[in-house]
# Entry
Amino acid sequence: AQKVTQAQTEISVVEKEDVTLDCVYETRDTTYYLFWYKQPPSGELVFLIRRNSFDEQNEISGRYSWNFQKSTSSFNFTITASQVVDSAVYFCALSEAETDSWGKLQFGAGTQVVVTP
Amino acid sequence: DGGITQSPKYLFRKEGQNVTLSCEQNLNHDAMYWYRQDPGQGLRLIYYSQIVNDFQKGDIAEGYSVSREKKESFPLTVTSAQKNPTAFYLCASSGQGARDSPLHFGNGTRLTVT
# Structure
C-alpha cells in the first residue's frame, strides 16, 4: 500500500505565483519522520526539510514553508513567490520508527513543478 | 568538499550482462543505501548497509547484489536476473544516529540496458 501520496503529478505556475504541494502519508507508528527533497533536472536529490512526528510546528525557511497536520496526516509544502530556479520534481518521504534504519524512506511519486517567466 | 560520488553518470549495457555501479562517500557515514527511480515514480529502496561487511535487502532487491568491504564504498551490481534494469540509480548515505542526519544523495547513474 502506498504510504506517501502526492496526488499532484505536475503543477505549472508563472513566476512570482505561490505554489503548494500536497503530501498525505500513512503510518501506524507514533514516531516517524517526514521529509521533502528537491530533484532539479541534474538529477541529484537535495534535502529541504525533516520534521519529526512530535513537532507539529509549522516552519518557514526563506520562500519555503511547511504545514504539518497530524490530524489529517498531511505535510504540505508551499513555495512563495516562485522563481524559475524552483522548477524541479519535489518528493515527500516518510521514515518510520518500526524499521531498523532511519534511512529507509518511503517516497511519494513526486510533483513536477514548472515555473515559467 | 565532502560528498557522495557516483560513477559513471550514464551507463549503457547489453541485455544479459552484469554491470556494477560505483558509489563512494567521504562523509565518514556509517550507513549507505541504494535507491532506484523510474520515470514518474518515487524512489524505491534496493539495498542498504548500516556497517561494514553487513547489508540488508530493501523493497526491490531481486536481481541486484551489493558489497560493503569498506566504509567509503557501496557498489551495486545489476545482474542479468533483473528483469527491468533500465532506471536511474541513486546512492545515499547517513551518519550515526541517522534520526539526526538526513540522507545525503549522490548525483545518480542512469543505466540503459538494450
